[in-house]
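HUMAN:
Sorry, I am quite new to this. Are you able to go through these amino acid letters and fold codes? The numbers rather puzzle me.
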Amino acid sequence: MENSLKEKTVRGVVWSFVDNIANSGITFLVGLILARLLSPAEYGIMAMIAVFIAISNSIIDSGFSNALIRKLDAKRIDYNTVFYFNLLVSIILYVFLYITSPLISSFFKEPVLVELVRVIGWVLIINALAIIPRTIFVKEINFKTQTKVSLVSSISSGIVGIGMALGGLGVWSLVGQQLSRQFLNTLFLWIYCKWQPVWEFSMKSFRELFGFGSKLLLSGLLATIYQNIYYIVIGHFYSAAQLGQYTRADQFKTIFSSNLTTVVQRVSYPVLSSIQEEPERLREAYRKVIKSTMLITFACMLGLAAIAKSLIVILIGNKWLPAVCFLQIICLSGMLYPLHAINLNILQVKGRSDLFLKLEIVKKIIAIVPICIGIFCGIEYMLWGSVFISFVSYFLNSYYSAALINYPTTEQIKDILPTFLISLVTAIIMWSFSFFELSAFIILPIQIIIGLVLAFFIYERSGLSEYIELKRIFFSAIHSKII
């Protein structure tokens, strides 16, 4: 059984990673093309809507998908109850956004937002239709199907967005890209999923699932608002162009940090939930997840900070240079995101959604400080404040999750410190090459090659168990039939 779970986990990690490359990686590549066709201001205008869509999506899900994944004996009526609730809430929220769109436009002083909000708002209903099929695939740790769906929807929507941009439609090309991606994603999930809704609704099922999910809903809302609050602050107190610079930096960071977080969260949660009644096994699985995940995360995020300038200049041009500083600071806070997610997963696995909520409230109260700094002192100061908050949040998350599985914070730090130091030294050496007066097209390859060679040499010499495990997984994924 243990080997079966391990194989299922590895398969899930591999396909979940490929899924994120298909969904976010291809979208990112399309974004590079759009960034050359569109202005920072047009990206900034689109970012102004992001917070409202993100908050609405959190409310629509209401923590039910995680509740269904955690429930070992979920029945047909549970899925139908959640499906109709999600759909009803999405319709209500779309109507609310439609009515309040003039207020949103007035707040950001951008008249075009009225029509933009009313059109992009349809994505709420489209996403609501996809929640149950997606939840079923996640519960089964079946990411292979989701990868196929993401690949088709990401490529197709990219073609739509680029075509509209070339046609001179400006910010509407970003709207077209998002709507077409979500529509195709939902359509193909329904085609591949065997589940079909039946007209039934159970208040008993609703209360049981909502009892767990409601706390995750509030936690998710707080996290979503915090993740997008910078869009509101920058969009209101600064210009659309400055917000556009910030969003591009954030999207570069997302390729590594957020995608790694999503992969780890999607796979580790159902896997750890399946062994929630076996303390020793749960602790060891959790420890392996943390060590392996942070080796990859530290290398990617610190490496990205080191090559930020040459990378941005080559990929999207000199007009995006102000995003370099933003990206380097964001990488320092983003490198801990997967660690936050893993620690918080334990609270959910152990059914402590109440503690999950309390932690989110405390962390968000503390986070008010850097936001205020951003309003009065500038965007860069606000981002440095977010780095500090990220470290504080880790200690809060790990303190409580550690108590539940007997894995103290000090042990966690001891386990991940070697990989952090290796990545830090490697990144500093890579970054030092950015001071040479050479073309970015020469500097970037040098930085990447030196970083890869140096990291490989150190890890081969160190013999760290997480490196050996990752290398084994990589080669088995290539040579075996596990994929």
User: Anything to note?
Assistant: The two ends are 19 Å apart (CA to CA). The mean pLDDT is 80. The chain is about 85% helix and 0% strand.
